[in-house]
Amino acid sequence: MKIASVIVDVAVMQTDRPFDYEIPPAWEDVIQPGMRVIVPFGPRHVQGFVLEIKEEQESRKLKPIVEPMDIVPVLNKELLSLADWLTAESLCFKISALQVMLPAAMKAKYSKQIRVTGFAPLSLSVQSLFNGRDEIAWEEAAEAGALSEIRKEVKKGSLDVLYSVKSKGRKKTVRMVKCRLSEKLLNETVQSMPKNALKQVEAMQFFLGRTGEWIPLKETGMSSAVAKALIDKELLEEKQEEMYRDPLAGRTFTPDTPLVLTDMQQAAIEPILEKVKEEKAETFLLHGVTGSGKTEIYLQSISEVLKKGQEAIVLVPEISLTPQMTDRFKQRFGNDVAVLHSGLSTGEKYDEWRKISRKEVKVVVGARSAVFAPFENIGLIIIDEEHETSYKQEENPRYHARDVAIWRAGFYGCPVILGSATPSLESFARAQKGVYTLLTLAERVNDRPLPAVDIVDMREELREGNRSMFSRNLFDKIKDRLEKGEQTVLFLNKRGYSSFIMCRDCGYVPECPNCDVSMTYHRHRHQLKCHYCGHEEPSPNVCPECTSEHIRHFGTGTQKVEEELLKLLPEARIIRMDVDTTGTKGAHERLLKKFAQKEADILLGTQMIAKGLDFPDITLVGVLSADTMLHLPDFRASEKTFQLLTQVSGRAGRHTLPGEVVIQTYTPEHYSIQLAADQHYESFYEQEMQMRKMGGYPPFYYLALITVSHEEAIMASSEANKIVMNIKPELSPAAVVLGPVASPISRINNRYRWQCLIKYKREPKLGAVLKQVLEHYAKQGKSNGLMVSVDIHPYVLM
Ligand SMILES: Nc1ncnc2c1ncn2[C@@H]1O[C@H](COP(=O)(O)OP(=O)(O)OP(=O)(O)O)[C@@H](O)[C@H]1O
Ligand SMILES: [Zn+2]
Ligand SMILES: [Zn+2]
Fold first, then answer.
1. Which residues is 363 bridged to in the sheet?
2. CB of 653 shorter than 6 A to ligand 1
3. Is 543 a known ligand-binding residue?
4. How far is the CA of 422 from the centre of ligand 1 (A)?
5. Out of 260, 338, 568, 608, which residue is the most buried by the measure of CB atoms under 10 Å away?
6. Is 506 marked within a binding site?
7. Which residue owns the Cα nearest ligand 1 atom 26?
8. Which residue intervals define the domain Helicase ATP-binding in the entry (predicted)?
């Protein structure tokens, strides 16, 4: 008999192994590894993934597969083995590793139906609920409050519960019609049709000269009733045709041609093209200052890959998946490009995925999860802005796109390009050691200078009586740009410094009642909101502690900056880009377009404007508060500050007009601010490496973070203690186990959180030890309410 081993869609430790199912003879030729199937599991039907197919001589009693959900495998052999690797590396469930590779639309949707069996009579109340129908949805019964009644009936045998599984994704179809008659016959028919059937006559006339051609029903102008009548008369034929939802519908792209590379670009691209030609895996770190033409190198490398008939994946951070960035790929490669980003609807993402899967496109540009694009002949993988922490997924499977890219490149024998103006310390250290090959673009294209940077000490401003959020230096420069008709970008760093409320008399800051964090103030609704659990409450007008009225909004929101700017410079035309103004579909793009067409003088925004912008008339960049991120409890705080300041500064003076940057700060002496002003990556790297060495942090040590949470603080802390006691003897003396300590955010959603951090260099047993810890708590978890999570190479230490 033929047997399929299947991973079922039930993400708990007990089911984290393949289960065997019989393949019914009818499906023997159909079912293959990598397909989704529906299988019985306990009383239910669930989705599962076929891992392999076995042939056994002896027949044994197995439950049969109910039916396949795919006609062709959705995961190829390579992706199936990538799932093995991912499971082992990130200590996740196999099912999570398989699901993360597919678009959300392909996740299973479960529904329950209740059906009348006819074996026993129904009670009157249930009869009236069914109201003559054979079947109703579970939800309907639940809403009617009839579940306990139903349960009794199921026991009696009069009702039955059916579980069904569906894919969420719907293919979009259009109704097409075709005239079945020959041209001659059609002519005669139109003549002989009764005159009172005017609509039908008109409809048939439409096909004169177009018989035998499939035409969307919409275009024929006839109603469905008329169509139906004509189909019934066998004059027309109909079919449903599958369609893609096109997120870029109605946009045209002016094709562009490759630029002539500068000598420096040429030197950088050659080693890449060599590996493309040799089909050898190698990881390149392309370190190029802002505006040095990295993107052109990506484009021309991809060209070579396509010429060889291979495919390319380009990852960019979600935040820079702006039309400006994706257009550059569309302009060069036209319809060969699929774009995957979170702004697409579930259906649109599914359609893009299908285009990739059917090899109708050759290039994918997308955020983190695009690294799983189901290509089978990959010739190049590019990760732009490789230092971005959003490449690490912060939920299971906790993978880093860079590691996945390097794994896939190893499989296909192709190069990986990691590009950045400010590489992560980890990657640069690897390049120093020769694990990655370093390629450097030390200057901007065509000797354009990097912008000149002024650091302004805001404490000094205050001492001299300037209480505004703009230093005199920055203000003068903005005014100057307004007069000259040049453009300014103002950047407000909000990460880690969202606006909160504080009482100026007693220092009281409202905190979330469920989580130990201060709440964020939302100005437009005068509400306080917790970003961890979603709790919301009205913002107080007097201090709940001391009843002072001086309880105020602290921190500066973009809206407040805009108001102040308008007070000072009423003539300025400002575009504000933040979560409030870019919430609707296409808003991001519209705002940037307006700015590009010079309908505004100042672009004011948060993180989302730090990257990728390339406009010729931006000659001034102002950073309103450089140090807000420096004070986070995170060993990467300096690195993040340096990266962000360098990126934002890089938006100025990218074309012929020279650029200037003003950085406002309360800690001007800090090395990450000083060195960002000099745009001196190597010096920053040297200095930061010393700090990391002293602190025992990456890249000198690897990290693993264990977090334990429970509703009672004492449970969380004592279990965290037990874990530490159990782990320590298993590790080498070189490993350092810190904690347990209360997590920086010590409570989320009424669960107390404790953590311990393991620092290590080489611990071959660590993975197995941590897996044991997880297994142990998974078995007990349900009964004692403990939750334990493990994050290998964590980026969020809170
Ligand atoms: N060989 C070239 N000749 C002329 N112009 C070029 C060349 N290469 C790139 N450019 C132009 O230089 C500008 C900067 O290039 P690009 O955006 O590729 O830089 P980048 O290194 O990706 O920048 P960033 O990291 O700051 O986003 C662009 O306007 C681009 O069109
Ligand atoms: Zn107070
Ligand atoms: Zn909360």
1. 312, 337
2. no
3. yes
4. 16
5. 338
6. yes
7. 290
8. 275-441
The ipTM of this complex is 0.94
Tell me what pLDDT residue 247 has: 61
User: Residue 515: nearest ligand to its CA?
Assistant: 3
Q: Among all ligands shown, which has an atom nearest to the Cα of 296?
A: 1
**Model pLDDT for residues 327-381, shown as the tens digit of each residue:** 889 999 998 999 888 778 888 888 888 899 888 999 999 999 999 999 999 999 9
pLDDT for 9 beyond 90: no
Q: What is the Cα 576 distance to its own chain's centre?
A: 24
pLDDT class for 496, splitting at 50, 70, 90?
Answer: very low
State the pTM of this model.
0.81
Q: Is the CB of 505 under 6 A from ligand 1?
A: no
Cα(620)–Cα(573) distance, rounded to whole angstroms? 15
512 is in an annotated binding site: yes
**Of residues 768, 755, 635, the one with CA closest to residue 700:** 635
Q: Is the CB of 331 under 6 A from ligand 1?
A: no
- What is the spatial distance between Cα 696 and Cα 708, in angstroms, rounded to a whole number? 23
Q: How many CA atoms are closer than 13 Å to the CA of 475, on its beta-carbon side?
A: 15
CA distance 40 to 739: 45
Greatest alpha-carbon span in the chain: 97
For ligand 1, whether the C-beta of 707 sits within 6 Å is no
Q: CA-CA-CA-CA torsion for 65, 67, 70, 71, nearest 10 degrees? A: 100
| Mean pLDDT of the 242-258 span | 68
Distance of CA 199 to the CA centre of its chain: 51
Task: Summarize pLDDT for 271-291 with one digit per residue, the tens.
Answer: 999 999 999 999 999 999 888
> Is there a binding annotation on residue 179?
no
Contacts 24+ apart (CB under 8 A), 190-199: 199/223, 199/226
Side-chain-facing half-sphere of 414: CA atoms under 13 Å = 24
Ligand 3 geometric centre to CA of 511 (Å): 8
756 annotated as belonging to a binding site for a ligand: no
Closest ligand 1 atom to residue 611 Cα is: 27
Closest CA to 706 of 692, 719, 690, 697: 719
Mutate to test the pocket of ligand 1, among 257, 439, 445, 450 (most ligand atoms within 8 A of CB): 445
Beta strands at 487-491 and 44-55: parallel, antiparallel or unpaired:
unpaired
What pLDDT, on a 0 to 100 scale, did the predictor assign at position 495?
47
Q: Give the pLDDT confidence score for residue 166 in this predicted structure.
A: 67
Structure tokens at 81: 């083995």
